[in-house]
Design a protein that fits this description.
Elements (H helix, E strand, L loop, with lengths): L4 E3 L6 E5 L4 E4 L1 H6 L4 E4 L4 H19 L4 H10 L3 H10 L5 E3 L49 H14 L5 E2 L11 E2 L12 E5 L3 H7 L50 H5 L4 E8 L2 E9 L17 E3 L1 H7 L4 E3 L21 E3 L5 E3 L1 E2 L2 H8 L12 E11 L6 E12 L8 H31 L9 H24 L7 H25 L3 H5 L1 E2 L4 E2 L1 H15 L12
Antiparallel strand pairs: 1-5, 2-3, 2-4, 6-7, 8-16, 9-10, 11-12, 11-15, 13-14, 16-17, 18-19
């Protein structure tokens, strides 16, 4: 066995953006020494950044999990526990070599197949263009024939977090292999989730904002003295091809009490990089430890959740599933159910259940009494959302979701649920107006002559997309301007004035673009339609949703 080389503590493998805008690469130790100089990670994909951020956060949890709110407030005043994190890393230095030794980082040293097969690097590089879809085509041709060690390290962490489902190589020693194949166990852990990440002014603040007491919400703290309470690299024996099913509600699984550090560094796959410090040319990629998303809110602190009636019926208990993000849908459109407002549905036991649950991290900050925090707490909170959409059978990458939203902290307070309820109401109202805009566009298309199944559908979708694009910046700005001293209704009326203006502007644009045949109109089979009639329908709908007396010039608050 060759000597270990390329230690991730020292080698510069993590791209970061400094507070002055400069982009540079750092190793883990330098990153921790410069947390106040670093604004954010700057990896090739947002999923890559979030996967590495979770790894760094796991180390913070390992050395300084807050006991309670008071302990967190002290940590906020002190800043990120970087000295303890550096001491921890030095203690585990041997586990951070990328190549060689008995414990290569996040890998199995002797992983191999019966025929000693290796995969090309597109097995782990998510941005490699596929023949059928060039979604992440930042690399082409020879760009994937070989990776630098720094590139390989980032894609290794990414694969453990986001590798799609599908058949993988059958590793020797894995009793679950059949016919030389490792059959699908689902995507890697983060691929199940709709992750939210709080951002501070620098990485130092960011780490503390996301470092919450392990008892928050319904999280189950786990004794850190056990291997299941530690980070994945703290195992006493080298990892092998043997793997387990740790799905909490799977009758065939073996439930384990998982700590936050363990989950943040979960090995969804067994991997061996083929290469050394001069470059990586291939990879052995096999199935790893399976997790299923049912009720993992008890352990996962960063995902949003939604009550699942089908899963609750299946397992005869209340089951919450991760609430994933829909591609192309701005994060602010997911605010209903994300803010502290309680929305209920009927559970399988006929009792009301919360339809949505925020992440445990958000829940902690919703309930935080920032008046008791001596060091200045943010007046606005930046929230980043990251997720993945997979293709058929979750076996390919289809899209990556990444959006960021800045919220006034006032709307995040449990004691101002009236404000968060008003935000929810305005999001839903905006969605309703978007549908009215879409209906106007569809009616204009039918008036111009579109007929048959789906008549007007294309025009409807384009108009709604145009509308959401038009309101997006103003809605985001409105969220940052919410004053905790303002009444919820006044807050809502300010947005309603803006919303009505956007709706009438889009109406004018659509009508101006209508054809002469649409002005004349036609019998659509469901009644006569022309531009004038379509406009009348739209005005009636808009006046019903936004009565004029709520939108007059009352002055700005």
């Amino acid at each position: 066995m060759k000597n270990p080389e390329y230690n991730l503590l020292d080698e510069p493998w993590i791209p970061v953006r400094l507070v002055d805008g400069t982009i540079t690469d750092v190793g883990l130790l330098e990153l921790l020494r410069r947390t106040t100089d670093i604004a954010d990670l700057a990896c090739e994909l947002p999923t890559q950044s979030i996967a590495i951020q979770r790894l760094i956060l796991a180390i913070a949890y390992r050395v300084a999990t807050p006991r309670d709110t008071r302990d967190w407030a002290r940590q906020w005043g002190d800043g990120a526990p970087t000295e303890q994190m550096i001491e921890y890393l030095e203690r585990w230095r041997e586990r951070f070599y990328l190549f060689g030794g008995r414990f290569p980082f996040m890998q199995v040293a002797d992983l191999h197949t019966e025929k000693d097969e290796e995969k090309t690097l597109d097995a782990v590089v998510a941005c490699v263009p596929k023949e059928e879809k060039r979604l992440f085509s930042t690399r082409q041709g020879s760009g994937v024939a070989q990776l630098s060690p720094s590139d390989a390290a980032r894609w290794l962490v990414h694969a453990q977090a986001y590798d799609p489902s599908g058949i993988r190589s059958g590793a020797v020693g894995d009793p679950q292999v059949r016919g030389g194949k490792g059959f699908p166990i689902g995507p890697a852990w983060c691929g199940h989730l709709g992750l939210v990440w709080l951002k501070g002014q620098d990485l130092d603040e960011t780490l503390v904002l996301n470092l919450i007491p392990a008892s928050t919400a319904e999280l189950r703290g786990v004794d850190s003295s056990t291997e299941w309470g530690a980070c994945s690299w703290e195992v006493s024996e080298p990892e092998t091809s043997l793997r387990g099913d740790y799905s909490l509600l799977d009758p065939a699984g073996t439930p384990k009490e998982l700590s936050i550090p363990r989950l943040l560094t979960w090995h969804s796959r067994r991997i061996r990089l083929v290469g050394d410090s001069s470059g990586v040319t291939g990879v052995v990629l096999a199935q790893g430890d399976k997790l299923a998303p049912q009720e993992m809110r008890l352990y996962e602190p960063q995902s949003l959740w939604r009550y699942s009636t089908p899963q609750s019926k299946k397992f005869k208990t209340d089951v919450y599933m991760p609430r994933k993000f829909e591609a192309g849908r701005a994060l602010w459109r997911n605010l209903p159910g994300t803010l502290p407002t309680v929305i209920t549905v009927q559970g399988v036991d006929k009792q009301p259940k919360r339809e949505f649950l925020p992440s445990a991290t958000l829940s902690f900050h919703y309930q935080l009494d920032n008046a008791s925090i001596q060091t200045s707490y943010p007046k606005v909170m930046r929230i980043q959302a990251v997720g993945v959409t997979y293709g058929p059978q979750e076996s390919t990458f289809e899209d990556i979701y990444s959006d960021e939203l800045t919220l006034s902290v006032a709307v995040m307070r449990v004691e101002r649920e009236d404000l968060s309820a008003e935000i929810d109401r305005q999001v839903r109202l905006t969605e309703d107006v978007a549908r009215d805009v879409g209906t106007l566009a569809a009616n204009l298309a039918r008036a111009a002559g579109e007929s048959g199944d789906g008549a007007g559908d294309g025009a409807r979708d384009r108009a709604k997309e145009l509308f959401f694009s038009a309101v997006d910046n103003d809605f985001r700005a409105w969220l940052t301007q919410v004053d905790g001293l303002e009444s919820a209704r006044d807050v809502g009326r300010r947005w309603e004035r803006t919303l009505r203006q956007h709706a009438t502007d889009i109406q004018t644009e659509l009508v101006r673009g209508a054809s002469s045949s649409a002005i004349i109109g036609r019998d659509t089979g469901r009644g006569y339609m022309n531009v004038g009639i379509a406009e009348n329908y739209f005005r009636a709908a808009l006046n019903k949703r936004l009565p004029v007396h709520n939108t007059n010039q009352e002055g700005t608050k």
